[in-house]
Design a protein that fits this description.
By secondary structure, this protein is α+β, with helices and mostly antiparallel strands. The protein is built from 10 helices and 10 strands.
Length: 416
């Protein structure tokens, strides 16, 4: 916000300060105008009478003492007034103490009778007395036009001074506002905006005790609290994510195990019948495709003679030998049921028969069996148009023929 709006805010603030100073200047100028210029003739005459009374008191003591020097000094000061057109002081005998009147408003007046009187000039003649003793008289003639001209000049000087003074005050006020208000507000705005970006900053405005300083302190406390809470929540979220990740991994592993358990025979770890049929469908019907169905000879006798634990050990060993033997081939094997195993491989009948013969010999010659074990094999080659149930039935019949031939045999059947 500080980058986007501080310039406009500063401009508006300076304009408001200038407008306020202009209003103050206007009010002050109007007041001075009404005080100095806005007078009519009666008010000017009142002002002249007041001035005459002041001058009268000033010349009273020098007149009693017959001090011409003091009267001359007073006269010189009074004659500097631009609105004064005549001034003289006489004693009780009518003698003028200011015979050398000099020049007033560009005219040399030797006698009062020579003064040009008009409607804008009024004359004030005052007796001078002290404790009832008559000392003489004073005559003053004041021009209203001269009074106005003088007051206009004074008004211009005062108005100029007021304008310059207010301009200086306005500049100082603007500078102070920018230093103590606008810049801190910019910093507060930028700091508040940074919180949205998760950048927690600490404001440093010196040792200010005003509202701005208190606001900065409150902001710093809020920023530290938010930063602490964000770190705490981030840590909690990280821990929750870690726990969730572990839970997901555990569930994926469990799903895999469940999927494997659903597709595997629990005893031999081979595919079960349902999973094998799905794998068989994925292999397609394109030739060549052979099925090898085999079971262990006299397995019931093994269970009855040695117990089911030994029978289970035999099944596990046959599964191990079969899986290792088929590892290099694109073959699938499953426990078809009981002591029966079914193999599917994408090879011609001759190759499938050789595979079955090698596996028969491995089982017969295995030294890891608890007793001698043999197996009978039925090998068939399927055709694309043959149904799976028909193929399974042909493999079963082929196996039956191997058993009829004395067991421990491989019997092969071509396509139906």
């Amino acid at each position: 916000m500080g980058n986007r709006y501080s310039g406009k805010l500063r401009l508006r603030t300076h304009l408001w300060v200038m407008a306020f100073m202009a209003i103050i200047c206007g009010i002050s100028t109007f007041t001075v105008y009404k005080t100095l210029i806005g007078h009519n003739i009666e008010e000017i005459e009142k002002a002249g009478n007041s001035m005459a009374r002041f001058v009268l008191e000033a010349v009273k003591e020098p007149l009693r003492a017959r001090s011409y020097y003091a009267l001359q000094e007073i006269s010189m000061g009074i004659r500097n007034m631009p609105h004064l057109v005549y001034f003289d002081v006489t004693d009780e005998y009518g003698r003028s103490f200011l015979a050398d009147r000099g020049t007033i408003r560009g005219q040399a007046f030797e006698e009062f009778d020579e003064l040009k009187i008009d409607e804008n000039t009024f004359i004030m003649e005052k007796e001078i007395s002290f404790k009832g003793e008559y000392l003489g008289s004073m005559v003053m003639a004041i021009s209203a036009q001269g009074y106005r001209e003088r007051t206009e000049q004074v008004f211009i000087e005062i108005a100029t001074a007021i304008a310059l003074g207010l301009a200086i005050v306005g500049l100082l006020a603007s500078a102070l506002m920018e230093r103590f208000f606008l810049i801190p507000m910019d910093q507060l705005s930028e700091a508040a905006e940074s919180i949205g970006d998760e950048k927690f900053v600490t404001l440093s405005l010196g040792k200010r005790r005003d509202e701005i300083g208190q606001l900065a302190q409150s902001f710093n406390r809020m920023s530290k609290t938010l930063e602490s809470r964000v770190k705490e929540r981030t840590k909690d979220l990280s821990n929750a994510n870690a726990r969730l990740k572990k839970e997901i991994e555990r569930r994926i592993l469990l799903e895999r195990e469940l999927k494997k358990a659903a597709s595997m025979d629990p005893l031999t770890s081979l595919l079960n019948r349902q999973a094998f049929e799905m794998e068989l469908r994925s292999m397609g019907n394109s030739a060549p495709l052979c099925l090898i169905l085999f079971d262990l000879d006299h397995f019931k006798l093994i269970n009855d003679s040695y117990g089911h634990l030994v029978g289970d050990k035999v099944l596990k060993e046959v599964a191990r030998l079969s899986s290792r033997h088929l590892k290099s081939l694109k073959a699938k094997i499953c426990r078809w049921g009981g002591e029966e195993f079914l193999i599917a491989l994408k090879e011609p009948l001759k190759t499938a028969g050789a595979v079955a013969e090698d596996l028969r010999r491995l089982i017969e010659e295995s030294q890891d069996m608890p007793m001698p074990v043999t197996a009978s094999f039925g090998v068939i080659e399927t055709s694309p148009e043959e149904q799976r149930e028909e193929a399974f039935d042909r493999a079963d019949r082929c196996l039956y023929r191997a058993k009829e031939r004395g067991r421990n045999k491989v019997c092969c059947a071509p396509k139906a």
